[in-house]
Automatic annotation (TrEMBL):
It is a peripheral membrane protein. Gene3D superfamilies: 3.40.50.11820, 3.40.50.12580, Spore Coat Polysaccharide Biosynthesis Protein SpsA, Chain A (3.90.550.10). It holds the Pfam family Glyphos_transf. It comes from Leucobacter triazinivorans. This is Glycosyltransferase. Keywords: Cell membrane, Membrane, Teichoic acid biosynthesis, Transferase. GO terms for molecular function: CDP-glycerol glycerophosphotransferase activity. One of its GO terms (cellular component) is plasma membrane. The keyword Glycoprotein does not apply. Belongs to the CDP-glycerol glycerophosphotransferase family. It is found in: Cell membrane. CDD domains: Glyco_tranf_GTA_type (cd00761).
Length: 738
């Protein structure tokens, strides 16, 4: 029994359990191991005949957050309702016993719920892959049409009826919201999620959208939706769920009924073939048609339709029952029924495009069938550039005698890479080499045409500590609007990474939520580019050489302000003429404000293509020079949301943040709030304020020690130390990545 004075948890996680001993520990461990631990877990044993109850009792004995309820078998809906009536958390999450959740699920969803004061938080899901060698561990493919929106409000919430599946498990609910509307599950039936989700969506006034696959479904053959297919259970319960959903629908949104009808029309074909016994199929279709016949759909502009005098929906199955055609025949005026063209009811694979990737497919598949090439390391820079982390790690590795005899390659056309190491990105032979390399080291997203060998190791260096939100931490509305599969493609790449290099605890925390990457596979090492800065900051000869290449020879008395902005999401897929460059600092005006003792150096972002005038003799465009080199000759860095400020921080170069578009940036990308709280004191929004901040910047130890400890910390162990072969490990390395 709970003590009366015991504080209520933030979240109640409800798990109905029926004969789930094979999966139960995995499920419970995923809940109890959450990064946000303020929870209670109510597990309802629904008459299990296996060892499920014993497992639950063991967990309850070890962890006071676990509450076990034992009941006679009454079905999943009844089990959830009983736990929901006992729940104490401000929020409620349902998890099926054969599934599990990502470690950051409660952290991410409760933060959004608290921020938005929403009724529920809708997040994404993925399947545990049945063919991990093909799709990766997880199969993630959802591209629902509403994901470009961060928040749904009012009748907009009904857009959630357009989801791929009506899953109650992919939402975090405010418990008060469920109780206020009396929303509970249907009992004694399967498909209980259908009416429940309909009510949840159709009554909501505010829904937070988290475009991240936090819930993992295990599509094993023993699940309730894959069993009992030799009885009328699926037929009767599915028809009941559809009818009940239409009965519960509130017509506040003129499109809601059409969304609901479209959802069930999409599902009826696969269910007809896979779940309904042949002897019940005619009745199943007839009942479904009757429900659609009774449903009224309003015209999209919001004007109500007249009741149809006659509406007939004819269904025809043909071509071995793989196609389903709906044709609406409507009599009378202003009657609307969606017209559905034939659709093939099977999982479709994307056709291979007629490009290099398609032309090379057979050769690359053949390369994957060959054994790995021992003692090979291939480097991939950001956009195949010889720069940043990949450059400095490559330079370190080829100079290290421990790698004598290794085949080291850098994929680039940059002539600065010596001929024996340089391989051209556009060649088939290069992609075959990447497919068979023992180690592949990248600094950003790896092109989809690069295939991973089952025995290779991929190390992701990334290109800096994130201040701006990334991937699953950002809604990326402009990108998603243009590329609905953007996050799907990126997550497919992430699943190929064996290790991810991070340079600070705060970076590791952000990468876990942004990439859903296992923290145990993160390498806590200083970035190679920062290691270069730390080693070379006292090299006077190098500084003089860099100044000469910039065009500052003979001007040692002038101070240098380096301006290095990042790119903007709101310009994604826009031409240069159509892009918004209002955020770019007027460097000529800054130079005038600073006076003769200063030189302003501009370094463009690779994705920027911004229009910056450097006609003033004290304004120099040095975009062609590596930014790490420019940092070595800079007295102050002016940036915005770029990771370059953390590199500057490492060598005690003060910085100023020029952020005139903060609100717009937040809308399209966003920054991490806890990090911005530490940095917003360095932010200015006009040129004069920037000049004042540059002049007043402290030349040494510009960032308070506590802030630096929070935002930045470098390991003494370089990444190269982790790349030694197994044979050399006993002498030189504690870890290896073979």
């Amino acid at each position: 029994m709970r003590k009366a004075a015991e504080a209520a948890p933030l979240v109640t996680v409800i798990i109905p359990v029926y004969n789930a001993e094979r999966f139960l520990r995995r499920c419970i461990d995923s809940v109890l191991g959450q990064s946000m631990p303020d929870l209670e877990l109510i597990a309802v044993n629904d008459g299990s005949t296996d060892a499920s109850l014993d497992i639950l009792r063991d967990y309850a004995a070890d962890d006071p957050r676990v509450v076990v309820i034992d009941q006679v078998n009454a079905g999943q809906g009844a089990a959830r309702n009983r736990a929901l009536d006992l729940a104490r958390g401000e929020y409620v999450l349902f998890v099926d016993a054969d599934d599990f959740i990502e470690r950051v699920t409660l952290q991410v969803t409760t933060e959004r719920a608290n921020e938005d004061r929403s009724d529920l938080v809708h997040f994404d899901w993925k399947l545990l892959s049945e063919k991990p060698e093909v799709t990766g561990r997880y199969h993630y493919y959802n591209a629902d049409p509403f994901w470009h929106k961060r928040l749904l409000e009012g009748i907009e919430c009904d857009e959630l009826l357009r989801v791929e599946n009506f899953y109650s498990v992919s939402n975090l609910y405010r418990r008060e919201y469920l109780n206020r509307h009396g929303i509970r599950f249907e009992e004694g039936r399967i498909y209980e999620d259908n009416p429940f989700v309909l009510q949840v969506v159709n009554r909501a006034e505010c829904v937070s959208m988290v475009h991240s696959p936090l819930y993992v479904i295990d599509p094993h053959p023993e699940s309730s939706t894959r069993s009992q297919t030799d009885t009328d259970k699926h037929y009767r319960d599915h028809i009941y769920a559809i009818r009940r959903s239409f009965e519960l629908l509130e017509r506040r949104n003129p499109r809601a009924a059409a969304y609901l009808a479209a959802y069930h029309i999409k599902k009826i074909g696969p269910y007809y073939e896979r779940r309904i016994p042949r002897r019940f199929r005619r009745a199943y279709i007839k009942d479904f048609v009757d429900i659609l016949h009774e449903a009224q759909v309003e015209i999209p502009d919001g004007t109500a339709t007249n009741r149809p005098t006659r509406t007939a929906v004819r269904l025809r199955m043909f071509e071995r029952r793989r196609y389903l055609m709906f044709q609406a025949l409507v009599a009378g005026k202003n009657h609307v029924m969606p017209r559905y063209k034939r659709a093939k009811w099977k999982l479709r694979q994307l056709k291979r495009r007629n490009d290099r990737g398609g032309a090379w497919a057979a050769e690359l598949e053949a390369a994957l069938d060959q054994p790995i090439i021992d003692r090979t390391i291939s480097f991939l820079g950001l956009d195949f550039k010889y720069a940043g982390n990949s450059r400095y790690l490559f330079d370190e590795v080829i100079a290290d005698p421990r790698f004598d005899g290794w085949r080291i390659s850098f994929v680039t056309n940059d002539q600065r890479v010596p001929e024996p190491y340089r391989v051209k990105p556009e060649l088939l032979e290069t992609n075959q080499l990447l497919a068979r390399s023992q180690v592949v080291i990248a600094e950003s997203w790896i092109p989809p045409r690069v295939r991973k060998h089952r025995d290779s190791t991929w190390v992701q260096l990334w290109h800096g500590t994130p201040l701006k939100r990334m991937l699953f931490d950002s809604h990326e509305p402009r990108i998603i609007w243009n590329r609905r599969h953007h996050k799907i493609v990126k997550y497919r790449d992430i699943q190929n990474w064996d290790y991810l290099v991070v340079d600070s605890p705060i970076a590791a925390e952000k990468f876990e939520t942004a990439f859903l990457f296992d923290p145990e596979r993160m390498i806590h090492s200083g970035y190679p580019r920062v290691k270069y800065l730390l080693e070379q900051r006292g090299n006077a000869a190098l500084r003089e050489d860099i100044a000469g290449r910039v065009g500052m020879s003979g001007e040692p008395s002038r101070k240098v302000a380096l301006y290095a902005p990042t790119w903007r999401d709101y310009n994604y897929a826009r031409s240069a003429d159509d892009s918004d460059f209002d955020y770019v600092l007027d460097v000529e005006r800054l130079a005038d404000e600073l006076g003769d003792e200063w030189v302003v150096i501009f370094h463009d972002h690779g994705y920027l293509s911004s229009h910056v005038s450097t006609g003033n003799e004290r304004c120099i465009d040095a975009s062609s020079i590596e930014i790490q080199e420019l940092l070595l000759i800079s007295d102050v860095v002016v940036s915005d949301y770029s990771s370059v400020i953390f590199d500057a921080m490492a060598i005690d170069v003060p910085f100023v943040l020029y952020t005139p578009d903060l609100e717009q940036f937040e809308e399209f990308r966003g920054v991490y709030g806890d990090m911005w709280e530490e940095l917003e004191g360095f932010a200015v929004r006009d040129v004069k304020g920037t000049a004042d901040s540059v002049r007043n910047a402290s030349p040494m130890n510009a960032v308070p020690r506590a802030m630096k400890a929070f935002l930045y910390s470098a390991s003494a162990e370089p990444v190269s130390q982790l790349l030694c072969s197994r044979e050399e490990a006993e002498k030189d390395c504690e870890d290896d990545l073979k």
